[in-house]
Amino acid sequence: LAYARHVKERDGVAEAPPEEKPPLTASEAKQLAAAEGLELIRSNLHSGYLGVRQRVNHGNRFEVKYQKAVGRDTVGLVYYHTHLGTYDTAEEAALVYARYARGLTHVEGV
Fold first, then answer.
1. Residue 108 host element (H or E)
2. What share of residues in the chain are helix, strand, coil (percent, to 5)?
3. Rounded to 5 degrees, what are φ and ψ at 58?
């Protein structure tokens, strides 16, 4: 990979940086969820959505984490955690959570 980049730079072929998509607004995320037939699951968490928490020390962004109980040990339940990223709005984060959960539902047949 480093050699390929070196050859491109040497030959004057410039690679454009990948475009960053602007963050979804709360209303855009809700519209996308409705269009995809997804429900943004409300909760009593500070963010207001299941699987979403606000990271105050990280620019007030919203972190998405999927958690599923997979068994028990001597202390209690054992959980499987999947970090799904951080987002600018709680609704965008909830949309990511809903999409991930839908994918698991199709795979697991739940």
1. helix 90-108
2. 35, 25, 35
3. -125, 45
